[in-house]
Fold:
Amino acid sequence: MNQGQEQFLSFILERVKDDKVEEAKVLLLENFKKLSEGKFTQDDIMQFIPKMIALLKPEKLEEVQTAVMQFAENFSDLLPKLG
Structure:
């Protein structure tokens, strides 16, 4: 896991429901692994988003959405092309 992923992981885990932190960590680490292996697909994204939203504290959703968009822009060369 690179430094950007570690920062993103910490950011997200601080905003997850207290009883869902481990579940969120596993989900994020699985997706980071796929991303680093070049195996992260559009289908992975479509499955990841609703799962992660369900784990977040409702009052943190907008803040996380903003951060995710920034993360996606910074790592757009690694993400699968959409559309």
